[in-house]
Every structure is written in structure tokens, then in C-alpha cells.
Amino acid sequence: MWFCRALRRVAPNGSRTYATQIGDKKVAVLGAAGGIGQPLSLLLKSHPGASSFLSHLSLYDVVNTPGVAADLSHINTSVKCTHHTGSDALPAALDGADVVVIPAGVPRKPGMSRQDLFNTNASIVQQLTAGIASTCPQAQVLVISNPVNSTVPIAAETLKKAGVYDRRRLFGVTTLDLVRASCFVAEAAGKRPENVHVDVLGGHSGKTILPVLSRVPGVQLTKEQVEKLTNRIQFGGDEVVKAKDGLGSATLSMAYAGARFTLNLLRALKGESGITEAAFVESDIFKKDGVDYFSTQITLGRQGVESVGEVGPLDEYEQGLLKDALEDLKINIKAGVDFAK
Ligand code: NAD
Ligand code: LMR
After folding, report:
1. What sequence ranges are listed for the domain Lactate/malate dehydrogenase N-terminal (predicted)?
2. Could you tell me which of 144, 159, 172, 158 has the C-alpha nearest to residue 340?
């Protein structure tokens, strides 16, 4: 590997940051031609500085990857793009991947719950994870496909069956819940969203999403505001599904959230310390209640999950939300485990 000392100036790709290293990581996006896959791949390919830790973007889908790869490859960053279409091409897409991001599967239409996607997406995630187990068993796996509360256990069981499961390397991506919470709370409190961090715990659907509004730094909310905002954060996905009116669910905000998580994980894999993100991972916190996966803030490191954060103090209202969240999570997780078995 060689190093270049970059200059503090605007580079031809418009980047004002300066890379000191050439990246060596390969990221595979499974579902790369989809509503999330395309903008997510764009954000990874074009992120200023991404080429200091990413060298290869592998674009896999059952359709249309040549066009997506040709288009992205005209962006002047040194991240190489390759395309792979159809299940015969899955091993080539995954070969040597350090990180695999999975937005493959069907999205909701108005009137559907995320759990209604189970029948279609469960087998897609199972098939793709089986491919990961045989081709790149050491990869970090980021599951976006819904219902995340069930697809993560499906992925875990599939990796376990193949004897390659490591709890440090499997994540359900819940970043969008935190991104949304930050927007909605900032709007209510008259702050800049960039400056508002809201912890969101639990899972990724309805009542399993637990925003902790009692401890947002610098923000005091009334009881009425808390109840309204909690509901809006829990059902934020429905706002987009309704607005898209049959044409799918959140894609652009999800691509933003997925890229943020992926880039932070790549930084941590490269050795940057102190990087935290929330994610739905195997967690001991509520195993006694029969809930094996739970999202809290986690610290990322060279092996993936370095440590899983605590739930932290909750007020009485949030304790009630937690109880509801655990009840639903238990059912959603069991559905995933049963399917995989
Ligand atoms: P989409 O239909 O636009 O794209 C999905 C892509 O997956 C398509 O290109 C399709 O060809 C591809 N695909 C289908 N089966 C495949 C397979 N076996 N292998 C590889 N690719 C396959 O849908 P979208 O809007 O991109 O949403 C994708 C998924 O992400 C949905 O399940 C949606 O509910 C979920 N989602 C999750 C979050 C989250 O916060 N975790 C947010 C938004 C959407
Ligand atoms: C979201 O939160 O936007 C996604 O999970 C998509 C959905 O179905 O709402």
C-alpha cells in the first residue's frame, strides 16, 4: 500500500477534505439498483474522503446493475465500481467484501406494516446471507431490508447454521430513526437539526422504536410535545409511504442514513477510535426477557461491534414505552428465528 500526502485545497472532485491514505476496503451493496441501493451507492462513491478507506464498490442486484455501475463510474473518485446481476453472479459480487450492505427486497405500500413484507423479504435475506456465509464469512453485514426486527435474526440464524456467526459483525440499520428524531425534535424545539442528538432504542417498527426524549441535551419538551413527537418518530416511515402514494417508502433519507452508518463503520474498521452509532444488534441487555436483539448506542472498532451501550435512565413514560417495545420485539424476533429454522 502506498500513501499520498494530499494538499489542503479543493480537489477536482470538489472535496475540501484531504485523504492521506488510499483505501483498501470493498463494500458490496446487495439490491444496488433499487430505490435505496442507487443513492446509497452514489453517496459511498462520491463522499469526500471515502476513497481514503474504500477502494471498491460492488453493485449486485437481480436487475439493472450495468447501468448503475456505468453511471457511477463516471464520477471522478478512485472508488472502483463493478456490476453483478443475478444469483449466479453473487459469489463474484461478494468475493473479498469487507462490508456487505443489504437493501434488497420489497418496500411497503400504504396500509401495509413492515411485518407484511416478511413473506417476500425473509427468503431474500436468507439467500443473500447464505451467500455471504460461503463467500465472505468475515464481512460486516448491514441489514436494511424490512422487517429489520425479523430479518436480522434470520441473517444471524443463517450465519450460525453455516458456523460463521459472530455477533460483532451483524447490524440491523436503525440510523434513519435517529436521523428522523433529530429532525422532528429540532423542528419542535426551534434548533438546528445538525446540533440535536436523540437516542432512539429498541427496534425498527412502530412501538418497538423507543425515542428517549427525556434526555436530549439542551432540549426541554412539554408532556404533550413528548407524546406527539414519540408517535411521529415511531411512525415516521408511514409519513413517507403515504406521501409516495404507492411508489414505495423512504429511499433518499434511508440512503443518507445507510451511507452515514457504512462510512462510520469503515472508519472504525480502519482503526479510528471512539466512533459510535445506534444499531439493532445481538445484545445481552434484555435476554432475560427473551429479547436477544436490541438497539442502543454501540461503539464500533476494528472487528465491528466493540461494545454495546446501556439503555440509560428512562422516565416513567419511557419505561412504559420500553415494556410495549419488548413485547413486540419478542414476537418479531421469534418470527425470524422460526423462519430460519
Ligand atoms: P426497491 O424495490 O426500490 O429496491 C429493492 C431492490 O432489491 C430492487 O432493485 C430489486 O431488484 C432488488 N432485489 C429484489 N430481490 C433481490 C435479491 N434476491 N437479490 C438482490 N436484489 C434483490 O426498494 P427500496 O425502497 O430500495 O427498499 C428496500 C428495502 O429496504 C425494503 O424492504 C424497505 O422496507 C427497506 N427499508 C428499510 C429502512 C430501514 O430503516 N432499515 C428504511 C427504508 C426502507
Ligand atoms: C422507514 O422507516 O422509512 C422504513 O422502515 C421504510 C418503511 O416501510 O417505513
Report:
1. 26-172
2. 158
296 and 226 share one domain: yes
- CATH number of the domain at 109, please: 3.40.50.720
Distance CA 337, CA 341 (A): 6
Q: Write down the pLDDT at residue 21.
A: 64
Which DSSP string do the residues of 117-170 spell out, in sequence order?
GHHHHHHHHHHHHHHHHHH-TTSEEEE-SS-HHHHHHHHHHHHHHTT---GGGE
SS3 state of residue 27: strand
In this structure, the answer to whether residues 110 and 186 fall within a common structural domain is no
Rounded to the nearest whole angstrom, what is the distance from the C-alpha of residue 174 to the centroid of ligand 2?
10
Domain boundary among 174, 208, 233: 174
What local confidence, expressed as pLDDT, does residue 317 receive?
98
Domain tally for the chain?
2
Of 326, 292, 38, 36, nearest in space to 170 by CA:
292
Quick check: is 13 in a domain? Answer: no
Q: Supply the range of the domain harboring residue 103.
A: 22-174
Choose the final residue of a domain: 146, 174, 202: 174
The neighbour count for residue 290, using CB atoms within 10 Å, is 13
ipTM of the complex: 0.99
Residue nearest to atom 20 of ligand 1 (CA): 61
Asked if the model's pLDDT at residue 87 lies above 70, the reply is yes
Catalytic residues, by residue number, are: 204
